[in-house]
Structures are given as structure tokens and as C-alpha cells.
Design goal:
Elements (H helix, E strand, L loop, with lengths): L2 H11 L33 E6 L2 E2 L3 E3 L5 E2 L1 H13 L2 E6 L2 H9 L5 E2 L7 H6 E3 L8 E6 L15 E5 L3 H9 L4 E5 L2 H10 L4 E5 H9 L5 E8 L2 H4 L6 E3 L3 H16 L2 H9 L6
Parallel strand pairs: 1-5, 1-6, 9-10, 9-11
Antiparallel strand pairs: 2-3, 3-4, 7-13, 8-11, 8-12
Helix pairs in contact: 2-9, 2-10
């Protein structure tokens, strides 16, 4: 889904974010419970300088007034409040953000930096705070009784050459998989009845569903396959900065336990993807 499409959806939602969403679910528990034992040492982290970007809605982007907002922005501030330290947020262009962190322009990068071997040599990463599962979408009248095992001989749309297409080929080879150039086209094929179901990134599908709830819905369970769909969203810190990383992990556990992480998720994702 393109930036402009997501941004327009978010702007239309901005007036209703404070309302209780009817289709969201609480977050699964992603944080490591052992982090409870890694208490921040008093004074070891006097402040956290968060770096992010301004082009990744609904996680970090600028609103109509130019203010930096989003799920990641709110989460960074809540982390600092939980650890009781000063907090700053600075937006960088995506192609400069990782280098800025490596050059000590900040203490942590909260912008969806992928955990790759190359990045692993430069940075350490917090525990996952938001996993991105694969989800099936069907027309609303087909949700009841949906089962992936019953898809044999039926058609399922996917984005061409995606990890979700690989999932279908590996785990459901008997299904008639139909590739489309984009997620939007693949999802629209469900709406028009051209295919029986869609399988793809749950988060992107959630945005589309927010505009198409009358016709379609998530069906079945969420599929977590880190080897295919990635490790989810984490916070990067310069390699060796264990005090900051431990403080972030400790805060993530606390924020999940006290309900804050669920609150932020429900606010920014009116149609939940779990």
C-alpha cells in the first residue's frame, strides 16, 4: 500500500482515534518476560534520544500541522516515561537514519529497521514490540467456518513474488494461487469476487479493511513465520549499548503488563490484524 493511500486513511481516522474501535484486538505478548529481571540501574540511562523517520504512517509521520505523530512516536514517549528519563525525538530521512544512530546522533532508532546480518553487525535490537503476521481475508459471508484446509481447488490472491506467496506454495500447494502486482489489487479481487480469498501482510490488509468492512473481513488465525514474514518491529541501539537496550526491554514488558501497549495499538489500528 502506497504512502499516499495510507496517509489519506490515517487523516480520515484522526478525528475518531479516541473512540473505542469495534474491530481491533489486543496485542499478543511479544516482549520477553525475563526482561522483568533486567531492571535499569539508577542513573545508567539519564535520557533516551530517539531517532525515527517521518514517512512511515501510522508509525511515524507528520500530521497536517507538521507535528511528528504515530504509534512509534507515542511508544517512544511512553518508554521514557516508564523508565522516568528525559526523552527527545528527532526525525531523519530513512536513508540517513541508521547512519545517524551509528554516529551517536541518537541512542535508539524506532523506525522499523530490519534485523539483517548487516544491521546486526552495527546494532543490537530490543525485543519485538509488534509482530506482523500473515492473514487471510475473505468476503464477510465466507468468514464463518473458514478453514485453510478447505481451500483446496479455490482461488487465493497474493502479491506477486511476496513472502506470503512463498507461504502458500510451501504450506498450501493445492490452492489456486493468483498473483497480483500489489496488495490493493489482490485485495480488490476478493471484494469483486474474482477470487475466494486473499493472503498477505495483516497490517496492510487492516488498512484496506477499514475502508471495506461492509464486504470483507479477516478469516481464520494469524500466522507468525519470522523466517518468511520477518521478526516484526523492534528498536535498534548502537552495538554494545546494553544499558539503553535493557531499559527499553524492561519498559516494553511494563507497558504490556499495565495495558499501555494495548491502548496504543487499539488507538492506531482501529481494525486489528491479530
Amino acid at each position: 500500500m502506497g504512502f499516499a493511500v495510507i496517509a489519506s486513511i490515517l487523516l480520515s481516522l484522526s478525528l475518531s482515534l479516541s473512540l473505542a474501535p469495534a474491530h481491533a484486538q489486543n496485542l499478543p505478548y511479544h516482549a520477553d518476560p525475563d526482561a522483568r529481571e533486567i531492571l535499569p540501574v539508577q542513573g545508567s540511562v539519564p535520557a533516551i534520544r530517539f531517532l525515527t523517520t517521518a514517512d512511515f504512517p501510522p508509525f511515524n509521520f507528520r500530521d497536517e500541522t507538521g507535528e511528528l505523530i504515530g504509534f512509534n512516536v507515542d511508544l517512544a514517549r511512553r518508554i521514557c516515561a516508564e523508565v522516568n528519563v528525559a526523552c527527545t525525538l528527532q526525525a531523519w530521512p530513512w536513508d540517513q537514519a541508521a547512519n545517524a544512530l551509528a554516529d551517536s546522533q541518537g541512542d535508539a532508532l524506532i523506525a522499523g529497521l530490519a534485523i539483517t546480518p548487516e544491521n546486526g553487525e552495527r546494532f543490537d535490537f530490543s525485543s519485538t514490540y509488534l509482530a506482523l503476521p500473515g492473514r487471510f481475508v475473505t468476503r464477510a459471508d465466507a468468514v464463518s467456518g473458514f478453514s485453510p484446509e478447505a481451500l483446496g481447488g479455490k482461488s487465493v490472491s497474493v502479491r506477486v513474488a511476496s513472502a506470503h506467496a512463498q507461504f502458500m506454495a510451501r504450506y498450501l500447494p493445492e490452492v489456486d494461487v493468483r498473483p497480483f502486482p500489489t496488495e490493493i489489487e489482490a485485495l480488490d479481487a476478493v471484494r469483486t469476487g474474482a477470487v475466494d480469498a486473499y493472503f498477505g501482510d495483516g497490517m496492510r490488509a487492516a488498512f484496506w479493511l477499514n475502508e471495506n468492512l461492509a464486504c470483507c473481513s479477516f478469516a481464520g488465525d494469524a500466522y507468525f513465520r519470522p523466517a518468511l514474514f520477518g521478526d516484526g518491529l523492534t528498536i535498534a541501539v548502537p552495538a554494545g549499548q546494553d544499558a539503553v537496550r535493557h531499559a527499553i526491554d524492561w519498559a516494553l514488558v511494563r507497558l504490556k503488563t499495565n495495558g499501555t501497549l494495548d491502548e496504543l495499538y487499539l488507538r492506531w489500528f482501529p481494525v486489528g490484524f491479530y
